[in-house]
């Protein structure tokens, strides 16, 4: 037994080393830095290090703006997650119903959106929605209307862009999932006289659930951490910072201002929030009787 | 059990190694007289003329110093913060000489990045404009030679003003009514293109009212942006970013470049622009039909104090060739090469006599040199300024007022608190 255990550890070591190097060490550094007053002066050796303990966290949690931004981030991420899941699922189902050529076109379009670099995609969307020369305003006849000025149209525009570039992942994954469902199962349901709707709810959906969980968690993590789209499309957080999300806030308040300690603290809080959301989500599923 | 022991070992290791890394340029003490001098200069939209002047200077320098080569790298203004931070943290990748913006000075110096310069043996230094040289000083020590200075004044469309039979504003208070009148007569034109993020246009409004954004008490700064005078200035500027002059939906998000761009497209009757904007305006829809006057102050005939922007040339602390570096700085920033830079790029010189010479030969510069002569002001010289700038404290304040998110009292209070927090850290 003892020997077997040692062998097992031996097999696990390479993976543990990689995980330790790529995950544990950076997180350890992040937490460590968040406990110090660590600015540019300290990095380049111009000033001594001061240990603050939880000082950075106290500063952060005491900022009213932090809570506003956190709330905005959660709301924005929720809209993006729901949006990309809905669009992705709908198009995945559509893909299973249409002819090959139409599916090809759909896939190419989706892959195009997926593979567009975030900065380029955001800039192109900005061009499309430009107040004076944008295609959208021209079509709608609203030339001169600024989409990025109002808080909610700005958020809406960015959310649409985020959904545009993240639905393909959902679509492709779910399409593969639907295709992998054995036809025997569906035939059996049909023979038992189940309607299309009944088949979808009682057969297809349960079989897709593991995949849905994966894409949901992935989307939550991605959309919670959106940076590029907000930074580019709202010019660094919108008028008077009203379109800030947590990642852009961390960059502006901490990293651009050389307050690496505070920035690390924001990073730790974000990691904690994401872990909490994921764990909460998984537990909720477990309570529903899902085998994970 | 074994896992627990493993975790315990990890924990002990963590406590033992418990401090983030620190590195840094300790000045090496070495002062080599040969080898390669590395120089960082800012890239420009149209770099050719600048590069040509710099090449001349290098040729002169290399022929005077045998065994010395000069390697110039042009870095982007947008990413300068990252580049300089990296250079300070790793002296091996750092240049010996660098061009940098004077608002960045205090932060760079406190990061231990630049070394102070002794200009006493340099004859030309006595002709440097004192208020401009002040922008190169921290705690009384000089850390760079002002290479050129940039000031802003009021650009206006002569054709529009003539058509409506109006004169350029003579006092600060006249700007808003005139701008409003123009937009009324020409609804598709901005009265004045004034951006919500255009801090260097807003500051003169605060200074003209006798206010300031901060005051220093023996090196300790406190924000005064919520003082009565400063509030009056903020309100005056915010009045310009309103639907009847420059609609917030169009102007609130604009910084300096975008504000001048509004004027360049021919869609604005006025803007606040720098001497450095001349070439781009001359190549725009407003070419040939614009004039420039100093931004007027509170009373007729006075000039609102302008922000003394500009770039410095400095020597990095980690350099192994301090004497050579200092000599190169003194050459590139000399009267001769400032004159050449003026001819090539239109950069305003920092020597009073050279300023006078170029102003006499070029009427365009008059409003700018007049502004310089009447006295300029500067942002607080403290490393905290870089932080206040990065956090966009003051642009956010202006934007809050122009969008009506907060009134002047509340917005300036928030900004003052944020500034004081930055000063304290």
TrEMBL record, chain A:
InterPro entries: MetI-like, MetI-like_sf, UgpAE/MalFG_permease. Keywords: Cell membrane, Membrane, Transmembrane, Transmembrane helix, Transport. This is Sugar ABC transporter permease. SUPFAM superfamilies: MetI-like. Its main location: membrane. GO terms for biological process: transmembrane transport. It is a multi-pass membrane protein. Belongs to the binding-protein-dependent transport system permease family. The keyword Cytoplasm does not apply. The chain crosses the membrane at residues 7-28, 74-94, 106-128, 154-178, 199-221, 260-282. It is found in: Cell membrane. GO terms for cellular component: plasma membrane. Residues 70-281 form the ABC transmembrane type-1 domain. It holds the Pfam family BPD_transp_1.
UniProtKB/TrEMBL annotation, chain B:
PROSITE patterns: PROKAR_LIPOPROTEIN. Keywords: Signal, Transport. It comes from the Bacteria. The keyword Transport applies. The keyword Cytoplasm does not apply. GO terms for molecular function: maltose binding. GO terms for cellular component: ATP-binding cassette (ABC) transporter complex, substrate-binding subunit-containing. GO terms for biological process: maltodextrin transmembrane transport; maltose transport. Gene3D superfamilies: Periplasmic binding protein-like II (3.40.190.10). It holds the Pfam family SBP_bac_8. InterPro entries: SBP. Belongs to the bacterial solute-binding protein 1 family. This is Extracellular solute-binding protein. It comes from Lentzea tibetensis.
